[in-house]
## 1
Amino acid sequence: MTDMRVGIVKEIKNSENRVAIIPQNVSEFIAHGHQVLVEAGAGEGSGFSDEEYAEAGAVLCSKAETVWENAELLYKVKEILPPEYKYLRDDLILMTYIHSNSHVEQTDKLLDSGIISIALEDVSSDDPMKKWPLVANMGELAGKGGFLAALYYAQSVHGGPGLLLANVAGDDQPVVSIIGCGYTGKGAAEFASAFGNKVRILDVNFKAMEEAKKYFPPNVSFMYSNRANILKCLKDSDVIINCILWDKTRKDHLIYREDLKLMKKGAMIIDVACDDAGAVETCRSTTHEDPVFYEEGILHYCVDNIPSAFSKTSSVRFSNDSLPFAMEVADKGVVQALKDNKHLRRGLTTYKGVLTMVETGIKQNRPYTEPDEFVKNL
Ligand SMILES: NC(=O)c1ccc[n+]([C@@H]2O[C@H](COP(=O)([O-])OP(=O)(O)OC[C@H]3O[C@@H](n4cnc5c(N)ncnc54)[C@H](O)[C@@H]3O)[C@@H](O)[C@H]2O)c1
């Protein structure tokens, strides 16, 4: 067992309020003989005070710099932003959501600095319904938040048609159509159905729909996703919630600008997937500060970090789900942990200047080594 200095800094991304470790889990690291350095105020956005961290045994540091410079394992939530590049070094291990395939400059910095980086979104599991456990948890919250946004914007006092998205005696149930039966789609469907709406989930994957059908109530139906069914949903739905992972190289769309003319007055599109001009042609991602816009008279909500609105819940979930992986790295050291745990190894992105994230190598046309092959030789 090694003892390791684990560092937690305040996230600097705009309106990112989550924190990587909650105080309860600081105590877990301390119980395993590690030290935890926490930047003062790191937990504030999630409702955790410095006092709670200190009581749990963390050493509070007034500056992010002190944490970065003294940590051996820097454990955070979001990707590395330009003001943080200067802290990257070859004797540091980084565990965070990285998305190296879409952040070219960050990938350069990770490789140039020699840092060992592990992308939490690529940590896998053996559960076929939850292949990416650290994506699933936030997706579920995003889907639920997407439905809550619809509930809010459907109110006349918030510019909507004055519709309560619920089953109210004396009126027909509102119709909520959800495209995609993945983590986010099921999160949205759980709330929409619990409120008594008539819910449809559309997918092209029958297995995913058959599995979901087992535990959703009868007010949820499942439709094959094709052009005819999407048009049907556009015509009669009060809310469309898009929850599909869209291949960024695709030029076509599932919902075209023209199609919005088919929608009812006051109907809205909640684009949880929020790929700019992706599955929804008229989508452009928005922020919590300025979440909605109208195209062809249809409200669009396309916030790209919905879980941050539920920062306390998200931080608790993130910290608990990622803790076993971070703890394994701290307990065994990174090399042994990578050798022992194939799921952790799947997230290995860079190791002392070598790219091990296959998708990033292919997408950015860079040389790479498969992580299994690379770790065998460490
Ligand atoms: N806005 C946010 O804050 C936020 C947070 C988390 C995730 N997301 C995004 O949400 C999206 C979905 O994530 P997920 O984890 O649920 O993905 P997922 O892979 O679990 O699910 C996507 C589902 O879409 C289905 N699908 C694919 N093509 C389809 C089509 N043509 N019609 C209908 N269904 C189709 C797939 O079969 C799959 O079941 C991703 O783009 C993710 O980045 C956004």
## 2
Amino acid sequence: MTESKNPEPELVSAPLRGEVSRRGFLSTLAMAWTAFSLAAVGGVGAAVRFLFPNVLYDPPQEFKAGFPSEFAKGSVDERFTAAYGVWIVREDGGFFVLSTVCTHLGCTPNWLPAEDKFKCPCHGSGFIRTGINIEGPAPRPLERYKVTLAEDGQILVDKNTKYQEEKGQWGLDGSYLTWTA
Ligand code: FES
């Protein structure tokens, strides 16, 4: 027997080749669809995220600080310093509320009971307990906030209203709560 000059082609049918190709196409299509879907979901997520941006909520500007009898005479109360940025100072004749913002560049001074003053750690400004600046670069006293008595008898601090000594505002109603009990 002689070998044929034109051997039979490999037995891979054309339809089978077409089927593999179709399968590959469908698989590629599925992957593309999945990728598109994920991208779409991601886009929607980003859009929703954009509708609800990160918001830092400030603490309320007005708050009750408790009853006057809870404050020892002569005390500088630091219970509201971290949350509200104030010191509540109790004198024999009443209360005033100091801002914890240094009037130099805005750092937070520390209350030093042994030295009876506030001392700013940033550039060394010092303030006596009334808030008056006595040393360092701070150009003016600490600010005071409005303090009154709420209907239920608690001390009410309102940071929306502030009083500046250099403007003669420490004598205004609301800058001091008279309380002698
Ligand atoms: S910020 Fe307080 S001394 Fe500068």
